[in-house]
Structure formats: C-alpha cells, structure tokens
Write a structure and sequence with these properties.
By secondary structure, the chain is an all-alpha fold. It folds into two domains: about 40 residues; about 110 residues, Cytochrome c-like domain (Cytochrome Bc1 Complex, Chain D, domain 2). The chain has eight helices and no strands. Helix 5 packs across helix 8 and helix 7 crosses helix 8. Bound molecules: heme C. The site of heme C (HEC) has 23 residues, from helix 7 and helix 8.
Length: about 210
C-alpha cells in the first residue's frame, strides 16, 4: 500500500538530516534534503516529480543569502527572466477583461486532481485585491484596485503589465508571484485577458 507523507514528516526528516550532519556542507545537506523529498512524494496525474527540480532563478532565490540578495545577483535574475518574456506576435496586449476576471477568480489548474486538458486559472485574488465587489482576497501582493486608473494605459504600461504576468521575476528578483507565461500556466490569450482586466477603464478593477 502506498502511504502519503505529510509535509510535517518531511520537514522533521529534513531537520533530522540537518541536525545529524553538522559537518556536511550546505550543498551536501541540500542534496540529501532533495533526495528525501523525492522519495517522499509520488507522481499523481499531471503533478510529476520534475516539479521539485529548480531552475537557475529558483536555485538562487532558495539560497539563504537570498534573504539579503546582492544587487548584482538580483540584476542577473531580472535580466535572465526579462529575456525569457515572449510578447504576442500580433502586438496586441489587451484581451477581454470579462474573461480576465474569470481567470483571476479561478484557482483551478495544475493540481493532480485537475484535468490538464482544461485551461488553468490564475488565482490573482488569492494574493491581490483587484475589485471593490470581491471582498475575499489575499494580501501577499499589493492591492491592484484602480491599477489602470492610476497608471494609465500607455504602451509601456501595457508591456510592463503583460510582462509582469508573464514573468514576475523579470521586474522583481525572487518575487513570490507565479511566472504565468514562463511556466505555461496561462496561455497568451489568457494573459491578454488579465492585462485587460487591470487596464480596461470598464473593468471592475477601475471602478
Ligand atoms: C502567490 C501570490 C500571487 C499571485 C497568485 C499573483 N500575484 Fe501578483 N504579485 C504578488 C506579489 C508578492 C507581488 C509584489 C512583488 C512583485 O512585484 O513581484 C505582486 C506584484 C504584482 C504586480 C506589480 C504591481 C506593481 O505595483 O507594479 C502586478 C501587476 C501583479 N502582481 C498582477 C497579478 C495578476 C494579474 C495576477 C493573476 C494573473 C497575479 N498578480 C497573481 C503575488 C501574487
């Protein structure tokens, strides 16, 4: 029978490894912790074990000194992520804000229990206030209420907003915001739609 390991058990395990191996280098300890995690999780549906593999940005942001990220490393992370942004070939950055609102509200997608053939949501409200009407929202990110009203809808603002949704790390190294385009969570059209949600004067964000 397969058992599921709780997060607590994993952390207790990691702590035990760390405590028992005071002489281990940071790198060795991280490697051991990763091996332990890999044996503790099992693949289910679309949630594969490669989700534990970190790219360069995640590695840099996971190092303890990242708490005091040097300006040089932060700049390196932002540049690499900025270079990865792919703007739409048709040059249009604004989609349908009504669809954007549904995407911002939906937390469905990428979980093992979700159908990978269906489009994912972005769960923007989990971290941001966006409209007045929705009173249930998280505060990990800044309020985006009146975002378009405050910043306008100039070409540079449209590009920044689309780019921020595509890859948040391009503008803020080690941001806690998901990289929706970079990690193929949202499609190009969906990113246009949430960009319109933030910028369209008729969207609930700007009322
Ligand atoms: C897991 C939390 C989380 C989610 C989900 C999230 N964000 Fe963010 N967002 C943040 C954090 C934290 C910041 C501030 C740090 C930074 O700028 O990266 C931020 C910053 C931003 C900014 C920059 C604000 C500024 O003042 O320039 C925009 C725009 C934004 N988010 C839009 C979105 C949209 C649109 C979505 C949904 C598609 C979304 N966010 C989903 C956490 C999140």
């Amino acid at each position: 029978m397969k058992t599921r390991t709780s997060a607590t058990a994993i952390f207790v395990g990691i702590a035990a490894i760390a405590a028992g191996c005071a002489s281990m280098s940071d790198q060795e300890a991280s490697q051991k912790a990763l091996e332990l995690m890999k044996t503790s999780f099992s693949e289910r549906g679309q949630a594969k074990l490669d989700r534990l593999d970190q790219d360069e940005t995640q590695k840099l942001c996971s190092k303890p000194p990242a708490l005091e990220l040097s300006k040089e490393v932060a700049t390196r992370i932002e540049k690499a992520n900025l270079d990865s942004i792919r703007y739409p070939a048709d040059g249009m950055l604004l989609g349908d804000w009504k669809s954007g609102e549904r995407i911002a509200q939906s937390g469905i997608g990428k979980q093992f229990s979700d159908d990978p053939k269906l489009p994912s949501g972005a769960n923007c409200y989990a971290c941001h206030q966006l409209s007045k009407a929705e009173i249930s929202y998280g505060t990990i990110g800044p309020s985006l209420y009146n975002y378009g009203k405050l910043r306008g809808t100039s070409e540079p603002i449209q590009r920044y907003t689309y780019g921020k949704v595509y890859n948040s790390q391009a503008f803020t190294a080690c941001s806690n915001m998901p990289r929706f385009g970079h990690n193929a969570i949202l499609t190009e059209q969906q990113m246009k739609d949430v960009t319109a949600l933030l910028l369209d004067p008729n969207s609930p964000v700007n009322q």
